[in-house]
Amino acid sequence: MNRRYLPQYLAIAPFFVLFAVFGVYPVLYSLWLSLQRWNGVSEMKFVGLENFRFLLTDTAFWNSIGNTLIIWVMSTIPMLILSMLVALGLNSAVRYKGALRIAYFLPNVTSIVAMSLVFGSFFSNEFGVLNWFLGLVGVDPVQWLSDPWAIRVAISLMIIWRWTGYNAIILLAGLQALPNDVFEAAKLDGAGPAQTFFRVTLPLLRPVLLFSVVMSAIGGLQIFTESQILLGNRGGPEGAGMTMVLYFYNTAFADNDFGYGAAIAWGIFVVVVLFSILNWRLVQRPPKLRSQLKGAGE
Length: 298
Hints:
mainly alpha; globular
């Protein structure tokens, strides 16, 4: 190593030291722990791949994957649609742009625990605000925290409320970076607002949408706090709110099975990676802009 560059190496060394201690080491240790049977107190017992073999046949783990995917679909698709509508509205707003952006982004920086407690009062079966409102319009109360599908709807609404503004700001940044001359060309070719949006705006916005979809997939598959605060550690009746991360939490920290908990964590990692790659492949190839503009003018 050239000693002339020693000051530069020393300047960047703290980052790599911290990354090794708080990033690399925990990952490697969790992999080693997944090969053990350990309750956190007694001596570790090496079991090899037994935890992973059991994971492949663990119906509770597969049910948690199913619950997580259902909640992800019920929350992410409406959330992205609402985010796009909000972004389009903010992009065309004339007054109070800054205040509107702050208002929409505020739910994302709100404490998740506090938010879950507030939503718990809204979804309460007996004294919830939503059931009170439904009673005013003559609708029977919904057992939000007892019925399996109502539980998933409640969790999905919490996720939509929290992440719509965040994705709207990202999409807004993408909209503001689009070149105006392309829209002027589409207008000259006779494209209407709907044609311009679907055949020009969306294709140009594809990289930003890709980012939002992939990040939503990663975040949506790691749902924990909303379900845990709203329903408890067991995910409510029939385990309808039992997500993958909540199942990992119960196994490792409630049942004190840290070896199998580590194996579950690696299983979650594999699911998230595969699902993210699937989403990325589905939306990564934007159609050619020339063909889109040609179609817009027809």
